[in-house]
Amino acid sequence: MPLPALLFEVFTLFPEVFEPYLQSSILQRAHQRGLVEINLYNIRDWTSDRHHITDDEPYGGGGGMVMKPEPIFAAVEGVLGSPPACPVILLTPQGRTFTQSVAHELAFGNDASVPDQTRRLALLCGRYEGVDERVRQHLVSDQISIGDYVLTGGELAALVVIDATARWIPGVLGDPDGVLDDSHASGLLEYPHYTRPAEFRGWSVPEILLSGDHGRIARWRREQSLLRTWQRRPDLLETAPLSKLDRKFLDQLRTSLDSIKTDGSSKMPGSGEPPKPPDTP
Ligand code: ADE
Questions:
Q1: 56-73, pLDDT tens digit by residue?
Q2: What gap in Å lies between CA 230 and CA 236, rounded to an integer?
Q3: Which of 15, 73, 75, 213 is the Cys-Cys partner for 46 at CB 3.0 to 4.6 Å?
Q4: CA distance 163 to 272
C-alpha cells in the first residue's frame, strides 16, 4: 500500500464519536484506498492517577471544568515527540475560521513543492470550558474554529476539518473535478443541480440544461453562481476572481434591481424573473 496522502492524528476524550462517521462516509473509501489515514488517541490513556482524571476546577474560581495540561502534553508528545513532529491544531471557537481555502492549505501545505509525501496533521479536541492555557501557548501550533458558535467539544469540529480537507486529495472523490466545482472553491456559491425526471410535479428542469449546448450551459451555470452569490453571500463577490463578462452580468443585475425600485418593471437578466435583492443581515 502506498503512503497515505493525509494522516490525521486525533487526540480526544471521545474517540468513539469518530468511528461511525469515519466508517460510513466517503472517508471510509478514502481509507480503504490508502489515501487518508486517521489515528484516534484517547487522552485519558495518558493519565497517571488512579481515577484517570483529565479535568479540574479553574484557578480563580468560576464555573465549568478545564482540561488538565499533563495528559494532553503526555499524549501528544508520546505520539509525536517533543517538539511535535507535525502541526498540532487545537479545535476551539477562538481559532481562525475554517474555510475551503484553509482546508486546501491543510491538505497541501503552503509549500506545494514537496508533493508525494504524507501530510501529517494532529487535531486536538478540547472539552469542558476549555484547555489549560499552557497547552495553547507551548504545544499547539494552530487553532481552528468551524464557526461563531460554541459546541460542547472539538470532536464535531475535527470531523468537519477531516472531511473538508480529505475532499481535496486526488482520488477521494469519484469525480476528480468535483472539488473544483464545489461552492466556495471558485470563491462563489455553486450553481443549481438537476437530475431526472425532466418534469416533477409540474416543475421543469431549465430548458437550457436539456439543450446539449455545452458552451451556453457553462455560461448559464456561471451566471447562476454569480446570481446566488449576489443574493445570498454578496460579501464573497468582493474577493472572488471575476472575469469582464462576470462583472457585466453583475452590473446588469444591479441595474435591473434599481429599475424595479423605481418603476417596478424589470426582469432579471437571463431568467425572465425579477431579481431578488441580496439578503440583508
Ligand atoms: N469547540 C467548541 N466550539 C467549537 C467551534 N465552533 N469550532 C471549533 N472547535 C470548537
A1: 999 999 989 999 999 999
A2: 8
A3: 75
A4: 39
Amino acid at 9: E
For the beta carbon of residue 272, count every other beta carbon within 10 angstroms. Answer: 7
Kindly state if the Cβ of 124 falls inside 6 Å of ligand 1. no
Instruction: List the grid coordinates of 279.
Output: 439578503
From 58, 84, 87, 93, the catalytic residue: 93
The closest of 40, 35, 2 to 21, measured between CA atoms, is 40
The DSSP call for residue 199 is E
As given in the structure block, the three cell numbers for residue 181 are 466545482
Which residue owns the Cα nearest ligand 1 atom 7?
145
What is the secondary structure of 83-142 as a DSSP string? TTSS-EEEEEEEEEEP-HHHHHHHHH-S-TT--SS-EEEEEEE-BTTEE-HHHHHHT-SE
CA of 200 to the centre of ligand 1 (A): 40
Residue 247: what pLDDT?
A: 97
Does the beta carbon of 135 lie inside 6 Å of ligand 1? no
Is the CB of residue 139 less than 8 Å from the CB of residue 88? Answer: yes
Q: Which three cell numbers stand for residue 216?
A: 451556453
pLDDT at residue number 272: 54
Cis peptide before 93 (omega within 30 of 0): no
188 close to ligand 1 (CB < 6 Angstrom): no
What one-character DSSP code corresponds to residue 194?
-
Per the CB < 8 A criterion, the answer to whether 64 and 55 are in contact is no
Ligand 1 atom index nearest CA of 152: 2
What are 15-33's pLDDT values in tens digits? 999 999 999 888 999 999 9
**CB of 152 within 8 A of CB of 127?**
yes
SS3 174: coil
Please name the amino acid found at residue 191: Y
Please state, in angstroms and rounded to a whole number, the distance separating the CA atoms of residues 174 and 171: 7
